[in-house]
């Protein structure tokens, strides 16, 4: 996809066309209503796996990786990986609601259909987001631990953009999204996170294989910089 028409693709996840100020206000509300998440997530739960206790899920049935990224260049690695996996259902864990919006807009800049789940989107839009993820065309769903829907078996890849720091959290995410289907779990880790990676390997009793992208598959730093500037401009309209 050429860089010359990338900016035209920036839009609100789940919609088409440029981002309007009105829609920006809708996105902004999502970052201010964190206390409502637990109640509204119940509306998004369509099917749930059978309850599992403690750490009973065997994560070794999944393909577990760590993706070594440069500390201040994680967006470049994220976009490059999602570009490589284009068309495959991807479930992304981010740390905050603001980050779900930011990552979705970054991917939109590059023409990828990404949808964030956030508290103020409401029941109908929440169902629409899940339906679009399950059947297309939006094959990238970005959310946080608190808003993660139950059982999304369509996901082929789980990307931990923010690395879980405990085995319990690691297992919880997989159990929440895909307890029965084998999928790739790719954990973003900078040089400062390698201690956490080692801890997870020890606690889970599994190795995390290193995931590599060849340099030719990496998006150029200039394109990432342009995307960051445009998304920053858009998000500043919410302030």
From TrEMBL:
Helicase C-terminal domain residues: 77-219
MF GO annotations: ATP binding; hydrolase activity; RNA helicase activity
Presence of keyword Transcription regulation: no
Keyword set includes Nucleotide-binding: yes
Domain of life: Eukaryota
Any GO CC annotation of this UniProt entry: cytosol
PANTHER family tied to this protein: ATP-DEPENDENT RNA HELICASE, ATP-DEPENDENT RNA HELICASE RHLE-RELATED
Protein name, entry field: Helicase C-terminal domain-containing protein
Organism: Lasiosphaeria hispida
């Amino acid at each position: 996809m050429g860089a010359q028409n990338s900016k035209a693709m920036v839009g609100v996840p789940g919609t088409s066309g440029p981002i309007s100020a009105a829609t920006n206000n809708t996105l902004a509300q999502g970052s201010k209503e964190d206390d409502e998440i637990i109640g509204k997530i119940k509306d998004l739960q369509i099917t749930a796996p059978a309850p599992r206790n403690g750490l009973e899920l065997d994560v070794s049935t999944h393909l577990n990786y760590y993706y070594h990224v440069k500390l201040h260049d994680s967006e470049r690695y994220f976009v490059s990986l999602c570009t490589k996996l284009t068309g495959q259902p991807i479930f992304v864990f981010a740390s905050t609601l603001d980050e779900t919006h930011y990552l979705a807009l970054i991917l939109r800049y590059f023409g990828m259909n990404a949808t964030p789940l956030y508290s103020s989107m409401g029941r109908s839009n929440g169902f629409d987001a899940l339906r679009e993820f399950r059947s297309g065309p939006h094959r990238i769903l970005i959310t946080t631990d608190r808003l993660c829907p139950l059982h999304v078996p369509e996901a082929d890849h789980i990307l931990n953009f923010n690395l879980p720091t405990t085995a319990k959290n690691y297992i919880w995410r997989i159990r929440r999204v895909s307890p029965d289907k084998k999928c790739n779990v790719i954990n973003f880790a900078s040089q400062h996170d390698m201690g956490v990676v080692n801890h997870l390997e020890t606690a889970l009793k599994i190795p995390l294989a290193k995931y590599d992208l060849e340099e030719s598959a990496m998006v150029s730093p200039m394109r990432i910089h342009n995307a960051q500037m445009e998304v920053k401009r858009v998000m500043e309209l919410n302030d």
